[in-house]
Specification:
This protein is about 20% helix and about 35% strand. The chain is α+β, with helices and mostly antiparallel strands. It is globular, with a radius of gyration of 13 Å.
């Protein structure tokens, strides 16, 4: 038997760029709100959001990618290696 593939979770986030600080704010239903200090220029806010999430999840940055919303505040992030329950447990912010 081969090992089962690592799970991939799709996380909906709402990013506020140029906010003065990087922070995981709160869950609004199934959407995680976060702020990043980086401006929404040339992918800087996207990269800052991915770094913030990877730190909060304790995963390498390479295990996260934006699958929808590259140029929008509303994004969907694919997280490789964690199921949804573990993602929510590791991102311990207000619900």
């Amino acid at each position: 038997m081969s090992p089962s593939p690592a799970p991939t979770t799709f996380l909906s986030v709402r990013v506020t760029p140029a906010a003065g600080r990087d922070a995981l704010l709160a869950w609004q239903g199934d959407v995680l709100r976060l702020t990043v200090a980086a401006p929404a220029q040339r992918g800087k806010a996207n990269e800052a959001a991915l770094r913030l999430l990877s730190a909060g999840l304790g995963l390498p940055r390479e295990r996260l990618r934006i699958v929808r919303g590259q140029t929008s505040r509303q994004k969907v992030i694919a997280i490789q290696g964690l199921d949804e329950a573990e993602v929510r447990a590791r991102l311990d912010v207000e619900r």
